[in-house]
């Protein structure tokens, strides 16, 4: 049996997923780890827990399959930052994308000429999610740590250094730091100057198809692979989700709704958005992923289900309420928001509450609010890159046909369900196939992707949601100053 492994380092878990060279998913091993929130708005992780989860997942997968993989390829969440000391070990936890402690620094930078110039070079919106803004906060609040730091890395570079002794970063993750120039494909001198760091403190940036140097002695045995197994550096989870969903041209978009959510398109050029509303990240030298992320995906529905329900998804409760929740509107900004408003101070709001509204109305309004936020992102991205013909969906919500149909009605677009729920891991495996010569043209990856179902929007319901989106925009606009 010939297979490749896609390693997906996510926000709350790491997955090791085996795929045959025909694209069939063979097996998944999933290991979880907790978030650490030492203060309100701060979100960190213990890098040691992530490393242990990753290495154990890969070892278990290989052991259960009974054969060694052709290659291993890595997907990783974006925007993480950790400081490494002289001994090569972390002197901070991993500060993740959801962390908002650098809100003040981000606002100040965004209002400056330097901020605009950095955005147009990097394609990364100026926001607390980015390592650039995290560095600004650390310079101001923890200069002692900054002086001790030898390297500034994310979790992937830390793992690669443990495995090979070298600090390497793929172009995809580099392009999401706010410190990189996507057009020159070099670290951005202006961004480094603003952040107060030197280029030598950052990893070497390499293409996403790069095969890592040979694993250190003992590492291969610990991972359960052969010493000469190709390990492909891979890319960011968002870019790889597009590849794993077969979204490789501007006529199709992907929408992933897991803990957070993101709407993305793959195009063949770096785009300039004068409103600074969308991201533009590198997948390969001729493929870019344009889109927008939301902090508030399935985590919002899980909050409601836990606090006001029995902790489980309840489709019957949703079906009992008419589209539009009888006028009840929900702004889902429980964790602040990224695209397209980029407002970390925004809050969740129920608007239009009346006596006829039941708990089920509130529950349905929550899901509708999550989908409306995704629609707002899609609308913004499409204004920059053009309309799409269909949207490929993935993530935990896609286990429910009812939710996908509701999303199709909200987006007013056909939605297609991909056969692999592990789109980022699959994208990593596909990139690995390309790197080792099993797939000549990356655009042929679409032949490996199969779709299970198509969902077409209902015109009557789409009209209800169209009006609801415009109203939710107006509500946010009037409350924005109160949030801040």
List strands and helices in order, with pairings.
Blueprint: E1 3-9, E2 13-20, E3 25-32, E4 44-45, H1 47-65, E5 71-76, E6 82-84, E7 94-95, H2 103-110, H3 113-122, H4 131-141, H5 143-148, E8 151-153, H6 155-164, E9 168-170, H7 171-174, E10 180-181, E11 186-187, H8 189-195, E12 204-206, H9 219-223, E13 231-236, H10 237-244, E14 252-257, E15 261-267, E16 279-284, E17 287-294, H11 298-308, H12 315-319, E18 329-332, E19 348-351, H13 359-385, E20 390-394, H14 401-411, E21 415-418, H15 423-435, E22 451-455, H16 459-483
Helix pairs in contact: 2-4, 4-8, 10-15, 11-13, 13-14, 13-16, 14-16
Key features of this structure:
alpha/beta, globular, 21% strand, 22 strands, 37% helix
Produce a short descriptive summary.
The chain has 484 residues and is α/β, with parallel strands linked by helices. Helices cover 37% and strands 21% of the residues.
Which structural class matches the secondary elements?
alpha/beta
Q: Compute the gyration radius: what is it?
A: 22 Å
Fraction of residues in β-strands? 15-25%
Give, in spatial order, the strands making up the sheet with the most strands: 16-17-15-14-20-21-22
Give the termini distance in whole angstroms. Answer: 57 Å
Mean pLDDT figure: 95
Helix content: 25-40%
Name the assembly state.
single chain
Instruction: Please count the helical segments.
Output: 16
Q: Using DSSP, what is the number of strands?
A: 22
Shape: globular
**Main β-sheet, in a few words?**
7 strands, mixed
Residue runs with pLDDT of under 50 for 5 or more positions: none
């Amino acid at each position: 049996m010939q297979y490749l492994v896609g390693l997906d380092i996510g926000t709350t878990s790491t997955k090791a997923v085996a795929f045959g060279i025909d694209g069939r998913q063979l097996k998944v091993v999933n290991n979880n780890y907790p978030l650490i929130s030492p203060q309100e708005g701060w979100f960190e992780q213990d890098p040691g827990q992530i490393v242990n989860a990753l290495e154990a997942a890969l070892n278990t997968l290989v052991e259960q399959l009974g054969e060694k993989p052709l290659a291993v390829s890595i997907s990783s969440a974006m925007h993480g930052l950790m400081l490494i000391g002289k001994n090569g070990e972390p002197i901070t936890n991993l500060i993740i994308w959801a962390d908002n402690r650098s809100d003040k620094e981000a606002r100040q930078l965004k209002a400056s000429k330097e901020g605009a110039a950095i955005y147009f070079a990097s394609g990364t919106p100026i926001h607390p999610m980015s390592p650039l803004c995290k560095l600004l906060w650390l310079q101001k609040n923890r200069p002692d740590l900054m002086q001790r730091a030898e390297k500034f890395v994310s979790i992937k570079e830390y793992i690669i250094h443990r495995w090979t002794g070298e600090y390497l970063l793929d172009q995809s993750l580099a392009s999401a730091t706010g410190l990189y120039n996507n057009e020159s494909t070099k670290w951005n001198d202006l961004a480094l100057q603003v952040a107060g760091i030197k280029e030598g403190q950052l990893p070497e940036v390499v293409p996403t198809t790069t095969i890592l140097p040979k694993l250190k002695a003992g590492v291969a045995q610990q991972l359960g692979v052969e010493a000469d197994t190709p390990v492909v550096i891979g890319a960011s989870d968002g870019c790889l989700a597009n590849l794993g969903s077969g979204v490789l041209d501007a006529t199709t978009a992907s929408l992933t709704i897991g803990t957070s959510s993101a709407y993305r398109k793959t195009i063949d050029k770096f785009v300039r958005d004068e409103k600074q509303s969308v991201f533009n990240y590198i997948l390969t030298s001729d493929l870019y992923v344009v889109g927008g992320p939301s902090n508030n995906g399935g985590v919002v529905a899980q909050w409601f289900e836990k606090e006001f329900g029995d902790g489980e998804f309840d489709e019957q409760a949703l079906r009992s309420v008419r589209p539009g929740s009888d006028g009840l509107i929900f702004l889902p900004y429980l964790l602040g928001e990224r695209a397209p408003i980029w407002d970390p101070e925004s809050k969740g709001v129920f608007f239009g509450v009346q006596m006829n509204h039941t708990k089920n109305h509130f529950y349905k309004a929550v899901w509708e609010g999550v989908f409306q936020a995704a629609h707002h992102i899609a609308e913004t991205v499409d204004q920059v890159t053009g309309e799409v013909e269909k949207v490929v969906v993935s993530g935990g919500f896609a286990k429910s046909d009812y939710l996908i149909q509701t999303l199709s009605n909200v987006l007013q677009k056909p939605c297609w369900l991909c056969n692999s729920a592990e789109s980022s891991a699959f994208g990593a495996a596909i990139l690995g196939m390309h790197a080792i010569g099993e797939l000549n043209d990356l655009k042929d990856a679409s032949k490996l992707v199969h779709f299970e179902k198509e969902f077409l929007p209902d015109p009557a319901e789409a009209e209800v949601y169209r009006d609801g989106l415009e109203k939710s925009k107006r509500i946010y606009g009037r409350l924005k100053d109160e949030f801040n």
